[in-house]
Specification:
Blueprint lengths: L2 H20 L9 H11 L9 H13 L5 H31 L10 H11 L2 H6 L6 H21 L2 H15 L9 H11 L7 H14 L5 H5 L13 H8 L16 H15 L2 H17 L1 H18 L6 H4 L1 H28 L6 H24 L9 H13 L6 E5 L1 H14 L8 E5 L6 H8 L5 E3 L4 H5 L3 E5 L2 E5 L10 E7 L3 E7 L4 E3 L3 E9 L8 E7 L2 E3 L17 E9 L7 E11 L16 E9 L7 H6 L2 E3 L3 E10 L2 E4 L6 E3 L4 E10 L7 E8 L5 E7 L20 E9 L7 E11 L8 E2 L10 E8 L1
Parallel strand pairs: 1-2, 1-3, 8-14, 18-25
Antiparallel strand pairs: 3-5, 4-5, 6-7, 7-9, 9-12, 10-11, 10-13, 13-14, 15-16, 15-24, 16-17, 16-19, 19-22, 20-21, 20-23, 23-25
């Protein structure tokens, strides 16, 4: 490599690493990222497939780089792997360019490599994975290293590059099986370059030896597993070893979609591709792939076969799709570099045809225009809040656990899912902050030991707490009493509860409002006001009565979804429930009164008389601050629906055969039993989502009863709104296709198509917020459907 190329490579690595380090999470996170922080620190066994290579390398990093806490230090390791991946993409383009390119003027000579590297560096999916501890950024680093070593071998003809490839392939096998999806492409490439390699046993033996050397980290499992402080302890047996490294329990997530689903999966890929690269960069990818096939068929074979293998696998998977797509995105960035090289050649030739032979003016303009693309994407990402520098939700949760339970001797039981336990384990294992079981017992809840069973198992041990709202526990007859960050599980009737702000207000002399909790009286526009209400009824109530609130000009009429309704209250018990009032993005900064009222939904009485006189009682004053990031008024006006100020449904189109309708349609869509209904929705993130959302698509009858439905994570599981932290960035749009197969025995009649979203764990639907900021139900009716 020439000195100039080496200097630019070092500069790219340094700038990209600095960018990732500056936007990295400052501490631990929920779920898997926390596991990737503490498992190496204690030399434990991570969840399947185990990640032996990552565990050992991260442990070495943690020992040699004494920067900040173990959690932050491990986040920086992700930044290193991210910068390494970007640098290797640069190297690959330089190698291919050196092999096939005609002489270019010096100025743009390294621009293709720079465009490829920076395009990947600022792709939102890649950026998000480079700023917190995770194993997937290591997977893509290994995969692009494989490509570079093979390209280098093709370029130089020196076999030791091929042997190095075999060694790193072995290391990749000890890390994650996704890194092996490219093996068919590797084999095709090697055979294309050296068809007779199978006739050279000495070369094959060396390759096998290097591969076996790379597999040595697998010995970590049987050697460490029996005494590991965390993780599987039976990996010294063949059954335990094979079950773990092949992730046998997770295979149900693979090859989930059939042939009929492939058009929708292609649409999902296009939607995700548009989020990573500007349209011009995507055009460069297409041009680069076509040009590379003509100019360098061997690297083209490698890259294209590599892409096809990874995309076919990843797009038909329903878990970790965005993580697995990192690898094909890196390959696409390489092709963008090839497209840039082609355009520069065209520009140089056009310049030489003019009287000024060098054509520097044309090349300079081309360089400036192309460099704008990654710079624009970087600025856009930062403006949308891609940085995790201020994301401290997991650290705040850990602090809340210690503040609530440590040193109190309460003997409480905190039932927790994986997501909430892992940040606690980071503090326990890496900072020595043990939690005494006399204070609180941490209990893992899983599919094998579900929530209700766990409650019954520990109900005699002490007070039971949950980290979030769990409808299954409520449906089992328990009361979930909000207490700060937690919910206390109480067998009815609940009586030993008291509000922070007592009241003595009666609604129609039947419901007694005892008071409320208000965690904060200051909120930004676009965020919710959280209100916890305490109420009781001395006598049974047959109908459904619901509270409602007003914040200045905004009225919040909550739906009955996921509530303990009044006809289920026991006489005299105190019912405590948490409510949220979405503050409109358009609400002017200032102070607004928070008022409370009651309605009889069953009796059709919109406002009940209160004992204080009138139908509303003032609770307090709320200070509203300006929104940090707010969508434009035009976005809100053009949206079909605003769901809880988090996401907006901007478009929806349904198709059956040759019929098509745009939401909200009035003329019924005519269908027949057995037909397939194709629905494509477009979502826009209005703010950073606060929860992992499930999208529901239901065909309902005249009584609003679902007769057919599809409830799933957006984009067929490919792109969750929130996974450990907010994944959707404000302003991003997502094309979300669905396929509904109408049953052959579906009765004829009038139906409607409804859509909406709800929290994955709470199952609570997001309210629809109208343009005035008022709540308008919890579903969107797209239009009528007539079954004939």
């Amino acid at each position: 490599m020439k000195p100039k190329a080496a200097y630019l490579l070092a500069l790219v690595f340094g700038i990209v690493f600095s960018l990732y380090a500056a936007t990295a999470a400052p501490g631990t996170l929920f779920g898997d990222p926390a596991e990737y922080q503490f498992v190496p620190a204690v030399l434990g066994i991570a969840h399947p497939p185990g990640y032996a290579f990552y565990t050992l390398l991260a442990r070495l990093w943690q020992a040699l780089v004494p920067v900040g806490t173990i959690a932050f230090r491990t986040n920086l390791l992700a930044a290193v792997f991210g910068a390494w991946t970007v640098a290797v993409v640069y190297l690959i383009v330089v190698e291919v360019q050196s092999a096939i390119c005609e002489r270019l003027d010096p100025a743009p000579g390294l621009l293709p490599a720079l465009i490829a590297a920076l395009s990947l560096a600022v792709a939102p999916d890649f950026w998000q994975h480079a700023i917190h501890a995770n194993a997937h950024v290591v997977s893509v680093a290994l995969a692009v290293t494989h490509l570079w070593l093979l390209i280098r071998w093709w370029r130089t003809g020196r076999d030791w590059w091929l042997f190095a490839f075999a060694g790193t392939l072995g290391l990749a096998a000890t890390h994650h099986p996704i890194t092996l999806m490219g093996v068919p492409a590797y084999g095709l490439f090697i055979m294309a370059i050296r068809p007779r390699i199978l006739r050279h046993p000495q070369t094959l033996l060396r390759l096998v030896a290097c591969l076996l050397a790379g597999l040595l980290p697998l010995l970590y499992y049987p050697l460490r597993s029996p005494t590991a402080p965390f993780g599987s302890t039976d990996m010294h047996t063949w059954e335990g070893f094979w079950r773990h490294v092949t992730a046998r329990g997770l295979r149900g997530n693979l090859f989930h979609f059939g042939l009929a689903d492939q058009p929708d999966r292609a649409l999902v890929l296009w939607s995700l591709l548009r989020l990573q690269f500007p349209l011009l960069t995507i055009a460069l990818i297409a041009v680069g792939a076509t040009w590379l096939v003509r100019r360098a068929p061997e690297p083209a074979l490698l890259l294209c076969a590599f892409l096809v293998a990874h995309l076919l696998f990843t797009l038909n998977t329903v878990q970790d799709v965005m993580a697995y797509l990192l690898i094909p995105f890196a390959a696409l960035a390489i092709l963008a570099g090839m497209g840039t090289l082609f355009l520069l050649q065209i520009a140089a030739r056009a310049g030489r045809k003019r009287r000024r032979a060098p054509g520097n003016r044309f090349l300079s303009v081309a360089c400036c225009l192309l460099l704008i693309l990654p710079l624009y994407q970087a600025a856009l990402n930062l403006s949308r809040g891609i940085s995790l520098r201020d994301f401290t939700a997991a650290e705040e949760y850990v602090a809340a656990v210690y503040d609530r339970f440590a040193g109190r001797g309460e003997g409480a039981v905190l039932l927790s899912a994986w997501e909430q336990l892992t940040p606690l384990w980071v503090h326990i294992y890496t900072q020595g902050k043990d939690l005494d079981q006399a204070d609180v017992k941490l209990t893992y809840v899983s599919t094998g030991n579900p929530w209700v069973d766990s409650v019954w198992q520990h109900i005699e041990e002490g007070p039971i707490y949950l980290p979030d709202y769990r409808p299954a526990v409520r449906d089992a007859g328990f009361r979930l009493v909000p207490e700060g960050h937690f919910y206390r599980v109480v067998a009815p009737p609940a009586t030993d509860v008291s509000p922070d702000y007592p009241l003595d207000v009666w609604a129609d002399d039947r419901v007694h409002v005892l008071g409320y909790d208000l965690p904060t009286d200051t909120v930004r526009a676009g965020e919710p006001v959280e209100l916890v209400l305490y109420h009781s009824a001395p006598q049974p109530i047959d109908g459904v009565w619901m509270p409602y609130a007003q914040l200045g000009p905004v009225e919040a009429r909550w739906t009955t979804d996921s509530r303990l309704l009044t006809h289920h209250w026991q006489p005299g018990e105190v019912v405590v429930e948490r409510y949220q009032i979405p503050v409109p993005f358009t609400l002017s900064p200032g102070e607004y009164p928070l008022l409370l009222g009651y309605a009889d939904l069953s009796g059709g009485r919109a406002a009940l008389d209160l004992s204080t006189g009138g139908t509303l009682v003032k609770l307090t004053t709320i200070t509203v601050l300006p929104a940090l990031r707010a969508p434009s008024q035009r976005v809100l006006e053009r949206a079909l629906a605003n769901l809880d100020n988090q996401i907006a449904l901007t478009k929806a189109r349904v198709r059956v055969g040759r019929q098509g309708r745009e939401a909200n349609w009035e003329e019924a869509l005519v269908v027949r039993p057995g037909q397939v209904v194709h629905l494509t929705m477009v979502w826009r993130a209005l703010a950073a989502p606060r929860d992992s959302l499930t999208i529901f698509v239901h065909l309902i009858d005249g009584a609003s009863r679902p007769v057919l439905g599809h409830d799933y994570t957006p984009l067929g599981g490919a792109c969750p709104t929130y996974l450990w932290f907010p994944k959707w960035l404000p302003g991003q749009t997502f094309v979300d296709p669905y396929r509904l197969d109408l049953p052959a025995d579906l009765p004829a009649g009038e139906y409607w198509l409804e859509v909406g979203a709800y929290g994955m764990t709470s199952l609570r639907r997001l309210p629809v917020v109208d343009l005035a900021g008022n709540l308008a139900g919890d579903r969107v009716i797209l239009g009528p459907v007539r079954v004939e």
